[in-house]
Amino acid sequence: MFLVGLFIAIVLVVTLSRRNSDSASSWQPPPRNTEARPPPYLEKEPVPTPPHFEAGSTKPNGESYSQNLVMAKLRKEDISWLYSSFPDANTTIYIVDDDPEKLQIPKNKGRESMVYLTYMIENYDQLPDISIFFHPHQFAWHNSDLQGQNILTMLEMLNPAHVARVGYMPLRCQHDPGCPNWLHLDLPDDQLDPFLRKEEKHFTSKVWWELHPGQPLPKSISEPCCSQFALSKERIRSNPVSEYQRYRDWLLNTELDDEISGRWMEYSWQYLFTGHSEFCPSQNICFCDGYGICFGSDWEFQYWLDKREIMRCRLEEAGRLEEQKSWPEKQFSLRKEAAAVEAWLEETKQKAVERGRDPKNRALDCGREWHEGDGF
């Protein structure tokens, strides 16, 4: 009896193990839904996915581009510097705190984004070749260091053919601040930086889906700061005018205040005009083809930036020693080294400007073929 019972037990164990083995080999995990979707309370009418943006084309060499300068300003802000430097320029200036009866925008909310969207809506069918959106400050830290933080210099050097080629160009070519891997959605409080990225706590998946219904959540939201850019006519019209109206309606109705709603739009332009949540174009190509400052390659431009950082560090160290009233010889040595680096920086930059005067060099640095007569 004992042997019979043992035989039956062995048969049962083998049978069950085979069943489990067969079941395990045929089992497949349920398919993953890799496309993030908003919760039901945020579902809205379907919105087209961002279009696939094509590279633009330039005009033949010698033909000009129609341009318009677009700005949001307060009544107290003096922009006589703009009119005196560009007396014949086409401008569209919105005074955001003007008399409500004369107000050109629905509401003064969302900082400059309310003006930019209103311009696109009102001029959609009569756009110039290039529209340039910028702030009312001639000098500001967020303007290009290489051009003396002077927006006038940037406007004078701006190459409209580059804008026509790329469609959307942030006027600040430098990545810092804003690029790369800059803002993230739904960060816990202990990971927030209240000084460098104070707006990040308001960057949530809820607001993302309000602005971009049904679109996947991004890993990061990045682009060179700070809401100053140029757009080709074709790129603006790549989106239907209803999209700009929808964004403006969001500004009018969101519970977010003026500053934070404006920051959301500041980091939405790249998504609206490139289809990418993170848009950090080559700094060298941006400066070279965009402004005619050609260092030769990304590596050579980064080397220039690194040398400039060395100069600044030497000056800061000398300043600390001066405050401490110590090591005068060291102070002298540090300032002498910084002066030598500064001279090299200026000489190298001027060579880059000279190199950028030749359209062949610009094409070469940007990896683009160039033929006589091409638009550049």
Task: Walk me through the topology.
Blueprint: H1 2-26, E1 67-73, H2 80-85, E2 91-95, H3 112-122, E3 130-134, H4 151-157, H5 160-166, E4 168-170, H6 205-211, E5 229-232, H7 233-236, H8 241-253, H9 258-266, H10 269-274, H11 283-291, H12 298-324, H13 328-356, H14 359-365
Parallel strand pairs: 1-2, 1-3
Antiparallel strand pairs: 3-5, 4-5
Helix pairs in contact: 3-8, 12-13
Q: Show unreliable segments.
A: 1-48
| Beginning-to-end CA distance, first to last residue | 98 Å
What is the total domain count? 2
The largest pleated sheet is described as: 5 strands, mixed
User: How many helical stretches?
Assistant: 14
Model description:
The chain has 376 residues and is α/β, with parallel strands linked by helices. It folds into two domains: 67-281, no CATH class; 294-365. The protein has 14 helices and five strands. It has helices at residues 2-26, 80-85, 112-122, 151-157, 160-166, 205-211, 233-236, 241-253, 258-266, 269-274, 283-291, 298-324, 328-356, 359-365, and strands spanning 67-73, 91-95, 130-134, 168-170, 229-232. It has a five-stranded mixed β-sheet, sandwiched between helices. Helix 3 runs antiparallel to helix 8 (241-253) and helix 12 (298-324) runs antiparallel to helix 13. The protein is globular and about 65 Å long.
